[in-house]
Fold these 3 entries.
Entry 1:
Amino acid sequence: MKNNARWIQHTHILRKDEYECSVCGYYTDKPSGKCPKCGSKMKGTKGDLTWIDEMEAADAIFNDR
């Protein structure tokens, strides 16, 4: 079990956020103090900027620059 585990927050434009365990890759809707799959103790959350790609795709669809 790693000591530096964190939830990776995946923010989305048209759906709710997801959280991924940095150790085992488990996805959940809500972060907790411990990963239910691998048991790693979480030390916080870090962000993931993939929502920017989703926003660029929406801008392209609506031709909004």
Entry 2:
Amino acid sequence: MTKHALIVGATGISGSNLAEHLLSLGQDWEVSGLSRSVSPLSGVRTLQCDLTDAASVSQALATTSPSHIFITAWARQETEAENIRVNGGMVRNVLDATAGKGIQHVALVTGTKHYLGPFEAYAKASPETPFREEQERLSYENFYYVQEDEVFSAADREGFTWSVHRPHTLIGYAVGNAMNMAATLAIYASICKETGRPFVFPGSPEQWQAATDVTDARLLARHLTWASTTPQASNHAFNIVNGEVFRWKWLWPRIAAYFGIEAEAYPGHPQPLEVSMADAAPIWDTIVRREGLAQNPLSRVASFWHSDADLGRQVETFNDMGRSRRLGFLDYQDTTQSFTDAFDRLRADRIIP
């Protein structure tokens, strides 16, 4: 039987890659996207709404009865209390609007901040690595925990199964998404190449030296599909990463080589992109005009603040994938290729030079 996926946040990096994957499976899946903007993917039925407005969500979903819900959206707020109110509310709005419709499975995408804490207390705790799903929640308030609890409560009421997916830094094709490090580093490298600035790793000594990992958005899409259709994966939380542990001091020259520039020696201290790229908007606009690129302002294609947060951590961060492996998900993704594939697609779509 054809399954009907409702992807909440279908235009983000997680949601759009999931939509592409489900559509590639042919007649197995019908795909609807719940988002403020229209999905550019042919085959996705967009249901536009304001996810923070319960009435708007209810109206958008009034005539839709999905079998599977994939919640991939979040909205950054100024404080964690507001993150909890807004992001917890978005999950609740969707699950309330679909109550009684026979939902089979709900998958929630959160992330490694489950182990590291929210932005206000980010990486102040030092949990043991590799992060494992059975580790206790931190004492800090965290909107991920509230989102999980909304799913758990609705599952108890409605009888659907659930899964929680905790990717690390997401790498993949997306435009206009705050979490896309691939696009951000591509813009940084392009501006360094244009101006002759040194292509310096902008993060902390700990991130330069320590073991870490990332998550390819295409791998996350396959993991979401697997967990939502595999009985033994029901009612579990999962880490989901590429399966390759690396150090940035190893990867950084490989990213530089892709763009035909040299990787500068690491200076031993952070040089945040928000500072070094503060004057980059007009430089980027010049590149866009000269190269005939898509008319995207710098703020739409690069999220320097988010990459600074990831690369500026002062604790080691990598994840254990044992639970997924034991239950049958064995996929692996080469990390260098995660970046270069994303760069290739950004170039093909004339997003970067």
Entry 3:
Amino acid sequence: MNKGDLIKAVAESAGLSQTQASDAVAAVFDSIESTLKSKEKAAFIGFGTFSTNDRPARDGRNPATGATIKIPAKTVVKFKPGKALSEAVN
């Protein structure tokens, strides 16, 4: 499923127009993004939790040449599925 498929599914499920569903999906994604940018968790009981983790800078190796390279620090997004989602999938 991609974003377009999600918008169609929301529109059909909630009885909304495609435009309204698109606005709703965009609002949800924007809210999750802004929460993660402020280093907070976005927890949805039964579905899962989005959080961030800071990775420090480190040295790495170029596999083709073997040369040492600097890998910069970055913030990564993590997702831990909730119990209900895990059970629904299995």
